[in-house]
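Model: You mentioned two targets. I'll fold them one after the other.
Researcher: Yes, keep them separate.
Model: Target one:
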Amino acid sequence: MRKNVSYLFMAMVTLVAIACQDKNDQKGPPAVTAKVIADVNIIDIRSGSISKKHVVIDSGKIQQILPASKDEAEVIEEAELINGEGKYLVPGLAEMHAHLPAVIWNDPQMEETLFLYLSNGVTTVRGMLGHHLHLELKEKVTKGEMLSPRIYTSSPSLNGNTVTSPEQAIEKVTAYQKDGFDFLKLHPGLRLHVFDQIVQTAKKVNIPFAGHVSTLVGIRHALQSGYATIDHVDGFLEGLVPASAQVNPNENGFFGYDFTEKVDTTLIPELVQLSKENQVWVVPTQSLFTRWFSPTPAAALAKEPEMVYMAPEVIENWINSKKNLTETADYSAERWGKFMEIRKKLIRSLHENGYGLLLGSDAPQVFNVPGFSIQHEMQAMVNTGLSPLEVLQMGTLHPAQYFKEEGNFGEIKEGASADLILLDKNPLEDIAHMQHPHGVMVRGTWISREQIDQKLKAIDDKYDKLKK
């Protein structure tokens, strides 16, 4: 019986491999292009259920998901075998608030950054500080000409310095849409009438807008204007300050930190309902606040293992940036704790009653190394009260829904892009099991743990030499 099952499985895989080869090539035996992750525990990202299957991949897609017999297939001659016995398979993650370097697509800095994402299972990146160079990068990635997560990119920043009049708003929004950017990035400092013109023009030319909430705009008007996403939970804490407090909105501090004692948390349901009514996703970037803005000493963060993958001058800049923010007379660990409890309540409520949350860590922001920071973000989300499954949905299913690509990525199903993470332990039991993946697949290209370690060591060695 064991041999019969093996032969049946081999035959099915062979058919897939032959079907996916170049039909015009009639010379010699068919090229081996298929891969099989055999006897792996697939996590259904919708329900959390687990089933043991064989996953057949070819041409960048999941071609078949086959029932796994009790007897593992002995030999698979027509496909590359990846042993999934005892391991767990989840969809690749989306980093929904990333910053890509403003360099050409084949610059070593870009290649390193993209690999750092891949090494942690990030197979989709939404760039939040766009540059015209990123348009060529996206084209190269879309055509499969380079190893990279799929790329969505914002326009260059629209802020109080770059857009100072309605006329400029019309000009820039129209130009960025024609250039091919996926959405507009909004930064602070926009005056209300300029913001309104951005919104009006964006809707006219059909380009989404996302990012920060300017203090002169306010969270309620921002939500009603139809942001695609509001990132960092920006503006929400300020929106919890009652009008009777008569605060100057420009004295809010770091994302509302200076208004911590003035907040009325009974106003949370109103803001959450507005986010739901106006279909605004929220990207919390909680790791920005648990790391850069936390009382944890800069020196301690600078010694974390993943810091070896960043240039020494970057680490030095991060140390100074953190000290300038948290080692001041206006900062206190006690107030930070209260501030974080308010954020956790907001995030839980936005998850339970809002339109939805998306996973993003603001890498490479201060002490947030690309790829590795998504691990910190997932743990931070669990610490707000979300389950590991809910956190994984933030990074897989929800981004697919956001991009209107449901079924194309973000799930393990036949016909979907083969963006996969193979893990040694069940992440539903502990989100920390997402760290150090056994291997990562991006659109059908398999990157083994050995390959990941080799590339990471090369990056480490490069920067280690600069320290000497």
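Model: Target two:
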Amino acid sequence: MSTTATILDESIVTDLRAAVSGDVITADDAGYEKARQLWNGAVDRHPAVFVRVTSTDDVATAIAAARDHDLPLSVLGGGHHVTGSALVDDGLVVDMSGMTDVTIDPERRTARVGPGARVADVLGPAQEHGLSPVVGSAAQTGIAGSTLAGGIGWLRRKFGLGIDNLRSVELVTTDGAVLTASADENPDLFWAVRGGGATVGVVTSFELELHEVGPEVAIAQLIFPIERAGDVLRAYRTHAAEAPAELTTLVVLMRIPPIPMVPPEAIGAPVVMVYGVYAGPVEEGEQVMASFQDFGEPLMDMSGPQPLAGVHEVARLLFPDARRYSWHSAYATELADDDLDAMVDALLAAPTNECELGIWHLGGAVSEVAPDATAYPHRNAEFLLSVEGGWDDPENDEACESWAREIWDHLWASSATIEGFYAGFPGFVAEGERARMIYGDNYDRLASMAAEYDPENLLGSGPTVEPTP
């Protein structure tokens, strides 16, 4: 990995600046350091040039420049990017972060969304009409990256993944063609982008389906002491097996962070946090989530009707920009006692207070879609287990990475987990194996699509799907 950016031939930069309407930024420009900063502060890459596109034509021009000058290519949307695939050393970044236009059509219940928009950019205006997109779980998450990977959000058990609520996309292929992909138009491309990310093209516009949810929903937020984690997690397992599709839950093993609503003496205490969001009438949701009291007496209970947008905003406090992150995952068919106990032990052994672990309940509408209906294959998993290393001091890089690897290795070897992980939170496997783990039985079809639309693997900065005829 380079520590300084390759200096491009001046004529390439000059031609780009003349050809696109947005800014072109190289290491010689004052804005370069800011341009290469992602949400994940652990990512330290040095592209040769950022092309800040403002239109589909700009995107096509930027792709052509990378192809014609044999430059590695990456695509930057909202800039969340746990893995850092948005940036490529010594290459060209198609920077779409300024393309944030959002248009809500309340009659058709759709949102037309630019590739640089984030969750909050869409959820806010949609909620003004009592509507919600099916998007990632954090306000600052980019729509493009999270949706194209699958889109695991707070409404998933009722309405499925983000890709299940994608009506159409506009994309630019590596040969410069601008195409629309939907169930009726270029359906093979539409299959590929739903879970396959940028494998077949650069998406420049999303049409999202909206649902009547919010602006106020029933929310559960309960905190239990770590000493009772075993009982709480096993009670949660029983509850999850009986939960209606309207209820989406997330359990987090964490240390209480220093945020405004927390008393100083509680900061740093290891706890079990149980979240729930009910995609239905508020009173009905409160009745359903009253059964969380079976978990025992909580340390804190912040449950009640709350704005749906507010649940997404919690992540801004818990996961601030520029912190260093190493996030990984494994899909599970069940919650095995040994895995639950190992996750509790891992929290207590974590090298920093910012490391945590999560249990994401899937099932419901997610599992009602056939595994081969989209490029995202893991429809039969009941849970996603996440290992979320977090730290601020670079001196903790090795300790936090080692911690994450150790607990992930344990979960990966469990009889309850399946061979696969979420594209946004990949596992500790070799690059050549990563894409096969993400796409499973859909890998070969996706590889054949890549051979048709990106035969030179120009879009291979993320999980690499080798083009195979």
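Researcher: Noted. Anything on target two?
Model: The radius of gyration is 22 Å.
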